[in-house]
UniProtKB/TrEMBL annotation:
It comes from uncultured Desulfobacterium sp. Residues 111-203 form the Methylene-tetrahydrofolate reductase C-terminal-like domain. This is Methylene-tetrahydrofolate reductase C-terminal-like domain-containing protein. It comes from the Bacteria. InterPro entries: DUF5981 (IPR022026). Residues 197-218 are annotated as: Disordered. Coiled coil: none annotated.
Amino acid sequence: MIRSITQQKPEEELDRLLDGLGRVFIVGCGTCTTLTNTGGAPQVDAMKEAQTKKGKLITGTVVLPVACDNISKEALAECGQQIGLADALLVMSCAFGVQTIARQIKKVVVPALDTLFIGKETDVGLFDEICSQCGACIIGETGGICPVTSCHKGLVNGPCGGTNDGMCEIDRKKDCAWTMIYNRLRDLDRLDAMKTLQKPRNHHGGEPRPGKLRLASS
């Protein structure tokens, strides 16, 4: 199961973001942050209690089914009166959800969480990073394994000199990403793909600008 992985912002940062905003409406998300225990109903209740102790007036709370979906506008409309009384919405979702809500509500919108990465659940409550959304995907040449996220050093042109017996130099309990890539390409009879040189990424231009990408219509 793929999820946006988040963590709660430091208390002092939340205090700064909410400074001067006495009445707050709290929004959670029923998908990613519910499953990662950062913005579901229990966390929304805990946030309400914490902010009330800090002197905030909580005008209401809601856990949207999917905060990052446009249907959230309809769910928020049902809380219109409570939202109308608030100075700000404190949103416990990923950054995408925060931005979606900000476009729908003419209120100050404050993110309660930091979005870390896109992760896949590998055990109960344990998520491994599978995509950093870098915008320069090379997994077509690495057997579907992303070295940017799977390698602790983010190496894109083969392993470092520290790999030993297929294990990572930095984390001896972690498989070396490039050993996994090698084994995968070998099994697919595509080892020649490892000879492809990945050029240094140009961070100053020549790549699609976020928010300005138009997909070709079919």
